[in-house]
Each structure stands twice: as C-alpha cells, then as structure tokens.
Amino acid sequence: MYIDKAADYVGQVQTINGWVYNSRSSGRVAFVLVRDGSGIMQCVVAKGDVEESTFEAVRHLTQESSISITGTIHAEERAPGGHEMHVQKIEVHQAAMDYPITPKEHGVDFLMSNRHLWLRSKRQWAIMRIRATIVKSIRDYLDDNGFLLMDAPILSANACEGSSTLFSTDYFGIPAYLSQSGQLYNEATAMAFGRVYCFGPAFRAEKSKTRRHLTEFWMVEPEMAYCNWSQNCDVQEEFVTYIVQQVLEKRREELAIIERDTSPLEKIATPFPRISYDEAVKLLQQAGSPIQWGDDFGGDEETLISNQFERPVFVCSYPKSFKAFYMKTNPANPQTVLCADLLAPEGYGEIIGGGQREDDYTLLLERVRAEGLAEADYQWYLDLRKYGSVPHSGFGLGVERTVAWICKLPHVRETVPFPRLLEKIYP
Ligand code: 4AD
Ligand code: MG
C-alpha cells in the first residue's frame, strides 16, 4: 500500500515499504513515523500485540532505516494524514546509523552539501511536490490551449540572451554553447506550427550570487505567430492564474506543511496591472530610489515595484539599450522596445520575460550587427523575416522563480532537486 491511498484500505492488513522518519516509545507503546515517498504514516506498536523481540526491535529503530511494516489501517483523526497503522510485524532491511540530518536546526551550507539526503525531509518533500504540480499545470494549460510542444536544442551556435553568460563547449569545431533560451528556434517552429512551446533546462554562466539566480534552470517558452505584445500579456495572465489555482486546489496539504499563507495567492486573478518602464521609474523615484531613466532594474528595484501590487504586474516598454537584440522597436518611442517583464508580488520580482519580436528584416539585421553578433550564424534566423514574416510574440517563464514565489521561499536553491549555483556543483 502507498500511504497516500490509506483511505482505500481502512480495516485491512497492509504492508508499507518505507523509511523511519521518527520514532518514540514509552514502556508499553511505541510510535513509528514511516515515510514511503507518498506520505507519512503513524504506526503504533503496542507491547503484547507483537512478539517481545519485535517490540524491542521497534524501540531501537533508527532514523532513516529502511523497513517494511505490516498491520491494520485505521481511520484516526488525531494522526497526521488522518490514518494510522496498528502494527503486527516489522522487517528491517538496513539499519541506518548516525543519519546526519536530525530534527534539530542545521545551517544552510550543511544542508546544501547533504542535498541528496535533505530531499527526504518533510519541507523539501512538500516543495518538490508543489514544483511537480506547477510543471504539470504549465504543460496542461499549453497542451489544452492549442500550443504544440516543440523541443528546442540544448546545443546551439547562437547566443540568445547576450554573450556574457554563455557556457561554451569545444566539440563542433566552431563555438557552440549550452542553450540560454529556446526562443530563436521557437520563432522558426511558430512559423511552421502557429502556436508552440519549448520546455527544458536553460544555462547561464551567471556571475551574480543572488537569491534569484541559478546557472541551470528550467524555463517554459511559448511563442505565437500573429500575436502582438499586448495579446502576449493576455495569455501570460491567464496562464499564471491557472498555475496558481491548480496549486491551491491540488496542494493544500503541502502548502500547509511549509506554512505558506495562501491568502495572497487567493487574490491572483486576471487582469494583471500593466505599467510602462517610464511609470515604473517614477514609482521608484517616489519611493526614494536613485534610479534614472535608462538604468536597468536589479533585484531591489523589482522588489520595490512588485511590493506595490497584490497581483503580478507587467512592466512594459523598456529602453532598447539593455534589452535583447531580437526585441521589436516600439514605433511610439524608438528608444524603447515592445517587451514586458512580469513581476510576481510579495517582493518576488521577475518571473517572466517576453515581448514582441522584430519582424522586419532590415531592422533586425541592423540589431544583429550593432550587437556584434556573427551575422553568418544568424542567417537562418534572419530567413524567418524573408519568407512570410508576421508579427509574433512569446515569453519565457522561469520554473524555479515561480516555485520560490508560490512557496514563498527566501532563495531559489530549495526549488529544484539539485540546484546549480555559482561555484556549486556538489552533490
Ligand atoms: O528574461 P529572460 O532572460 O528571457 C528569455 O530568455 C527569453 N528568451 C524568453 C522568451 O521570450 N522566450 O528569462 C526568462 C525567465 C526570467 O523571467 C526568469 O524567470 C528565468 O527565466 N530566469 C532565471 N531563473 C533562474 N536563474 C537564472 N539565472 C535565470 N535567468 C532567467
Ligand atoms: Mg529577463
């Protein structure tokens, strides 16, 4: 039996294959908390109900020993999960000695270097299950709304998001990099399939050590032909609202385990406010920030802005100077581009970057040259503007930042099973 299915087995004798999460005993009765990956069950062993040797063995069970435990399943309101087992038999597969992560407090460095074990703890269990639901909601929404999955390559000769964060490889005889984003390929597949998405890992050799940056992260990137920047925002607000609602519906127990106050999440609904970069700069200046028009926003600025709104907020039309080469020039103000970043509330900041793509061949070629990109490598990408170019837009949502926000975690390191951070590759 799996613990999460206990309700189906009330009154029956069943076996759970799992690990000892915790145990305590008095002279006459022992309680063993057993986890099997699907949940945690309180197992009660009464002296007299089992053989003397079994009771003694239970009293000496150590944390994280692997066991099979057999007994009757009972409904029990006071037990975690609402069920408990009255034990008849225990088989110990391996007795764990000196498990390093004890119920006492440990420092983050210690836990990070024991990530392979830390994942067994209740809080990490809850976060990873919420992450899995976020990923499933992402796929469900896109699959059910006319987007076709189009996997983008990981190895690429093209830089998408600037040359300063590239991971290079030495194999093809020419420079090739781990993908920073599948977007450029999405633009090609969108012209073949209309609405597409890619979903996979992205790599950035980020030199910054912040609570928002990983060197390897997961990103979902939808791309739509015949779509302008504002229609692109319409899709994003529906998409993000759906993800939050799914988590609220399916992961109540996990949200409670991590003590997430869900009231801010209940407020997430369409439409999301949209402000321009100009307005955002004014808002920051009023709040005392020294920021000037033309400066990029860092984490602090994003936090300040997102704190002013209960819903995620779009910041639109950033200056061209610090945005990617593919963004479409804003006809109303050519110093800016038709893009929008989506900042999550509660101070979380950017979770989505997106916008409309430059669809004019000449203007795009100018941008490729101005950025000093090798023109020859972008011929295929420029081709898309020669053969049936159309207005098109898309966006990229970072999974780890979304998990951090929805779980209200202080750092992205707990949002993925094995985080890759600046100078951090073990385990
Ligand atoms: O804003 P970014 O760089 O946009 C792109 O890559 C576009 N090509 C996406 C597109 O339009 N198809 O990244 C998009 C999102 C960010 O908003 C953030 O959530 C996440 O990816 N992200 C990171 N997450 C963790 N660590 C990092 N180093 C990240 N860099 C970006
Ligand atoms: Mg961005």
From TrEMBL:
> What does the UniProt keyword field contain?
Aminoacyl-tRNA synthetase, ATP-binding, Cytoplasm, Ligase, Nucleotide-binding, Protein biosynthesis
Q: What is its main location?
A: cytoplasm
**Coiled coil feature spans:** none
Keyword Transcription applies: no
Recorded catalytic reaction(s): these are: tRNA(Asn) + L-asparagine + ATP = L-asparaginyl-tRNA(Asn) + AMP + diphosphate + H(+)
Gene3D superfamilies from the UniProt entry: Bira Bifunctional Protein, Domain 2, Nucleic acid-binding proteins
All copies of the Aminoacyl-transfer RNA synthetases class-II family profile domain together span 128-417
Known SUPFAM superfamilies for this protein? Class II aaRS and biotin synthetases, Nucleic acid-binding proteins
Molecular function terms, GO-annotated: asparagine-tRNA ligase activity; ATP binding; nucleic acid binding
**Cellular compartment(s):** Cytoplasm
Q: What is its EC number?
A: 6.1.1.22
A Gene Ontology biological process in which this protein takes part is:
asparaginyl-tRNA aminoacylation
Gene Ontology annotations for the cellular component aspect, listed alphabetically: cytoplasm
Q: Subunit details for this protein?
A: Homodimer.
Regarding protein family, the annotation reads: Belongs to the class-II aminoacyl-tRNA synthetase family.
Classification via PANTHER family: ASPARAGINE--TRNA LIGASE, MITOCHONDRIAL-RELATED (PTHR22594:SF34), ASPARTYL/LYSYL-TRNA SYNTHETASE (PTHR22594)
Protein name per UniProt: Asparagine--tRNA ligase
Organism listed in the record: Candidatus Cryosericum terrychapinii
- The coding gene here is asnS
